Amino acid sequence: GAGVSQTPSNKVTEKGKYVELRCDPISGHTALYWYRQSLGQGPEFLIYFQGTGAADDSGLPNDRFFAVRPEGSVSTLKIQRTERGDSAVYLCASSLGLADSYEQYFGPGTRLTVT
Amino acid sequence: GESVGLHLPTLSVQEGDNSIINCAYSNSASDYFIWYKQESGKGPQFIIDIRSNMDKRQGQRVTVLLNKTVKHLSLQIAATQPGDSAVYFCAESKNSGYSTLTFGKGTMLLVSP
Question: Do the Cβ atoms of B4 and A37 come within 8 Å?
């Protein structure tokens, strides 16, 4: 079946601009996660959704970052006033969201470059 | 294109060898551990997991060992193949009803034919 998809695959934007990154999770997965991966590093947690609500947003670096999941499926990560330090690969993952069923399935990521 | 493996520890092996990748985790409260494989330009792919009440778990050609005393995790790959070449990450999580993952730094595995 279809895996997690993310669009766009690449995004180049100028410093100060606003960007939106989209994630389509696996159908039926109630849990959705956003991670950020810098070159040569492991992914770092940003935010977790269970259904429509953000259950844990402790990883968001500052208030320029925001994410929504209005219908409990597709999620959008929004970054305002982008900075060069925001350049990274943004990964989305989804899981069934059930106790004892923790396996997260990752999408291919969106590579964001801020010039 | 860019590689996620830049500046990572690298393990180089010959095809057919057994590979061992090590990871030190940080949180003694973590009770769920996972190994992921990441190929260039792709997202991490689940390989195998283990809970803290176990010290060994085997999958197809892979074995994960957990030593909670020294907070150490290892991934053993038997009969390594060129297709195993990738960056491998360990990740840890607390069993809190969901699993926000904390990833380690990663090791690049290079398999020569």
Answer: yes
Whole-number percent of chain A with pLDDT over 90:
83
Min distance A91 CA to chain B CA atoms (Å): 7
Residues with Cβ within 8 Å of B19's Cβ and at least 6 positions away in sequence, in order, are B11, B13, B76, B77, B80, B84, B109, B111
Provide the token pair at A92. 């989305």
Residue B70 Cα to chain centre, angstroms:
17
B54-74: average pLDDT = 95
Which residues contact residue A87 at a Cβ distance below 8 angstroms, ignoring those fewer than 6 apart?
Answer: A112, A113, A114
How close A16 gets to chain B, by Cα (Å)?
24
Is residue B80 over pLDDT 90? yes
Closest CA to A42 of B32, B95, B34, B18: B34
The DSSP bridge partners found for residue A98 are A101
* Tokens 């040569």 belong to residue: A40
Q: Which residues pair with A95 in a beta bridge?
A: A31
